[in-house]
Amino acid sequence: MNASLFDAEPLAGRPLAERLRPQTIDEYVGQEHILGPGKPLRMQIERDQLGSMILWGPPGVGKTTLAGLIAKATKAEFVPFSAVMSGIKEIKAVMADSERNRALGRRTVIFVDEIHRFNKAQQDAFLPYVERGDVILIGATTENPSFEVVGALLSRSRTYILRALTVPELVRLLERGLTALNVQVADPEILEQMALLANGDARSAYNLLELVAAGAIDGIITRETLEDSTQRKMLLYDKGGEEHFNLISALHKSVRSSDVDAALYWLARMLEAGEDRMYLARRLVRMAVEDIGMADPRALEQSIAAQQAAHFLGIPEGDQALAQITIYLSLAPKSDAGYKALGLAQQTVEKRPADPVPMQLRNAATKSMKAWGYGKGYQHAHQFAGALNIMDCLPEALLGTRFYEPKDAGMEKRLAERLEEIRKWREEQKREQS
């Protein structure tokens, strides 16, 4: 087994992340979606039914640690490989040892860090041994294995996606670090701020804690200690408190007011404070539908594209996508006509009894239903010129009710003209038939 990961050797002088590596699966923090009770990888480990696998996830989420713990839990020899340092010659030498181990009834877990850095020939060198079951291959990668791992190897392995650690998970790890370093924090919020700065990376969190702890006075880490160590101001920001809602309110109202500079400022404040990027993306999508609506229908498309880009690129590159959509929404024509229309419709639904669906709109699914008048009088729009008919679609008690009144802004101005044409044509046609 790899001594650097799990053997009981002196740990003094090693980085904190190395000293605090968990020794059992139960000590491992994060990845509950695959390691929680009853989850797939946990079941494989507990039943000792391991197969080759690819661990795909961002840096610092525990891929190497997890591979070592799997080997330890299943009593297999753990042999680490670095795709940067090893070639086919080294692969074949280790595989020969693995064959001998298998003949003696011992299993070998081959761990290949950064497997995406191996070329096709190097990856193919593992195939015969994986197919025969001589080794259990665990590959770790930060890149999409669909593109970076050869198809033959990928098809013989199960891919597990590891997620960036959450702020609460990182706080748990940092609390362990405080104990190991024999330091304290003056305010629990300091740990949360450090977790935000680590951006889902446990190794970064531990490295930051070591850096900050070195500057602690009398073993106490203060806000000033953190700011001096990181050269970054700790912004007043509680993600669950008043300041969180104050800032998002300022951003939303700046966009609504078409004040692009103010909107960018409030966005930058939230980004710098470590706000969840997907929360910001959701709020920006909401602005697109609530404050712009049909004045520029593309605002919704662009906001969804920005959310996808922010998610795909991550931090910090994805922040530019959030800035771009903030600018777009700020400068777009504004209309809350759609928002108001839904509100009026909902009020009507709440205040009135549930009016029956008009017979002409009901689907006559059986002969009996047709005999009862279901579908009678239905006018299929595409059978009429311009796909327009005069059939009433509202319940009789609500005929003539108007919920949507478009504004004279952007594309909605054209929609208003179209809506007026339709309404006027229908009124004229009804008068002629009466």
Cα-atom Rg, whole angstroms? 31 Å
- Give the helix/strand class: alpha/beta
Tally of structural domains? 3
- Poorly predicted segments: none
Report the span from N to C terminus. Answer: 91 Å
Word description of this protein:
- This protein has 434 residues and is of the alpha/beta class.
- It has 3 domains: 3-161, P-loop containing nucleotide triphosphate hydrolases (Rossmann fold), CATH 3.40.50; 167-230, Helicase, Ruva Protein, domain 3 (Orthogonal Bundle), CATH 1.10.8.60; 242-331, Zinc Finger, Delta Prime, domain 3, CATH 1.20.272.
- Helix content is 53%, strand content 7%.
- It has 22 helices and 7 strands.
- It has helices at 3-6, 16-19, 32-35, 40-46, 63-73, 88-103, 120-124, 127-132, 145-148, 151-155, 167-181, 188-198, 202-214, 223-230, 242-256, 260-272, 277-292, 298-313, 317-331, 337-351, 367-371, 411-433; strands spanning 53-56, 77-82, 108-113, 136-141, 158-161, 184-185, 220-221.
- It has a 5-stranded parallel beta sheet with strand order 2-3-4-1-5, sandwiched between helices. Strands 6-7 form a two-stranded parallel sheet.
- Strand 2, helix 6 (88-103) and strand 3 (108-113) form a beta-alpha-beta unit.
- The chain is extended, with a radius of gyration of 31 Å.
- It starts with a helix and ends with a helix.
- The model has no long low-confidence stretch (mean pLDDT 86).
